[in-house]
Amino acid sequence: MIFQAIGIGIIIGFLFYEVVGLSPGGIVVPGYLALFIDQPGRIVLTIGIALLTYYTVLFLSNHLILYGKRRFLSMVLISFIVKWLVEGFLFQLPIVNVEIQSIGYIIPGLLANEMRRQGVCPTLLATAIVTILVRLTLYLLRF
């Protein structure tokens, strides 16, 4: 099902980009989010990590020269570190369910990179629309 979700996400994301002009958070993000649409805690945590990553890199870019591949690598690396720190903190809380974790290590970094490129709200809106369309397509095709 992962294969189908990512493939359908790439196709719908590309069509959405061509029609609307907004990227849905990266090439594989909607497909992965569609797989976990029934686990909103994971999606919220993933978006939270992406936002923390975005604002961290935004802060760092005031003090470091970050552009192009450096900025993209910073987004992915910092999202990896933020995910590790946030989940390490959450797992130590006695009231948090063990199933609350973000989706992947790269997904928050890809989302953060698109947030930097086209803005937070447009990216999240485009991602939500394409994710729902991917999930509906998977449902209609019975995957």
Structure summarized in a few sentences:
The protein is 73% helix and 0% strand. It is mostly helical and 143 residues long.
Structure description:
This protein has one domain (2-140). 73% of the residues lie in helices and 0% in strands. The protein has helices at residues 2-20, 29-35, 40-60, 68-92, 107-118, 120-140. Helix 2 (29-35) crosses helix 6 and helix 3 (40-60) crosses helix 5. The protein starts with a helix and ends with a helix. The mean pLDDT is 91.
Class by alpha and beta content: mainly alpha
Bulk shape: globular
Our estimate of the beta-strand percent is under 5%
Calculate the mean pLDDT score and round it.
91
Total strand segments = 0
Distance from first to last alpha carbon: 6 Å
Helicity level:
over 70%
Spell out the key features of this protein.
mainly alpha; 143 residues; globular
List the helices and strands and how they pair.
Elements: H1 2-20, H2 29-35, H3 40-60, H4 68-92, H5 107-118, H6 120-140
